Amino acid sequence: MSKGMKVLPRSFYERDTSEVARALLGKILVHRGHGGITNGKIVETEAYYGEGDPASRASRGKTKMNEIMWGPGGRAFVYVVHGNCLFNVTAEREGVPGAVLVRALEPLEGIELMQKRRGTKLEKELTSGPGKLTKAMAITRAHHGLDLTNSHSELVIVEGEPQDFVIGSSHRIGVSADLERKLRFYMDGNPFVSR
DNA sequence: CATATGATGGACT
DNA sequence: GTCCATCATATGG
């Protein structure tokens, strides 16, 4: 990781979940593990709220697995669906549930390592989906609860290079409830956006 | 304990 | 496009 890369502060995350989801586009997710460094630019996200959001894990109250959504912003929220780990970042202030699902990255560093972890050489297939990117970045449930605003964390999100892009939006993918609200956000035209 | 259900991915027609 | 392997949770008996 080059110097001067600023880890996003708590204040970045402690605001409206959709704002956080949009603001995360273009930021860099960095994993510094034993195998080496991998990182990628966030190009697709989805916002999930609490009660009143039928598609959200938090819509029916706290459980052991989702209670982190009520905690402070800027923490890793990782859980398994269909055998795949999904990586979210908590949003909103403590006491207000919210999380942003990171659905796709554009690989930047550690591409060989990602290829090895994913079992494919095809760059477009490395991180173009929520389950794909966790495998490429070696994100597991062990990272659940990690503070992403601590620069010493194994997993952090840092400021990216300034870049102009258009934000596209659509209904959220893979949910059956609430196909009305456009809470999925992506960099329009980026080839690593899923589907 | 049994079974249903996904914020999915990969293989296949 | 369709089908299904996958596995942690949630829920019901």
Largest β-sheet summary = 8 strands, antiparallel
Helix vs. strand class: alpha+beta
Specify the overall morphology.
Answer: globular
Work out the strand percent.
Answer: 25-35%
What helical percentage do the residues reach? Answer: 10-25%
Number of helices: 4
Low-pLDDT residue spans: none
Measured between the Cα atoms of the first and last residue, the distance is: 30 Å
Average pLDDT confidence is 95
Oligomer: single chain
Order of helices and strands: HHEEEEEHHEEE
Provide the gyration radius in Å. 15 Å
How many β-strands, per DSSP?
8
Question: What topology emerges from the helices and strands here?
Answer:
Layout: H1 10-13, H2 17-23, E1 28-32, E2 37-48, E3 76-81, E4 84-90, E5 99-109, H3 111-118, H4 130-136, E6 155-158, E7 167-170, E8 184-187
Antiparallel strand pairs: 1-2, 1-6, 2-5, 2-8, 3-4, 4-5, 7-8
The structure holds a DNA duplex (13 and 13 nucleotides).
Structural commentary:
The protein has 195 residues and is an alpha+beta fold. The protein is 13% helix and 27% strand. Strands 1, 2, 3, 4, 5, 6, 7 and 8 form an eight-stranded antiparallel sheet that branches. It is globular and about 40 Å long. The protein starts with 9 loop residues before the first helix and ends in an 8-residue tail after the last strand. The mean pLDDT is 95. The chain binds a DNA duplex (13 and 13 nucleotides) through β3, β4 and α4.
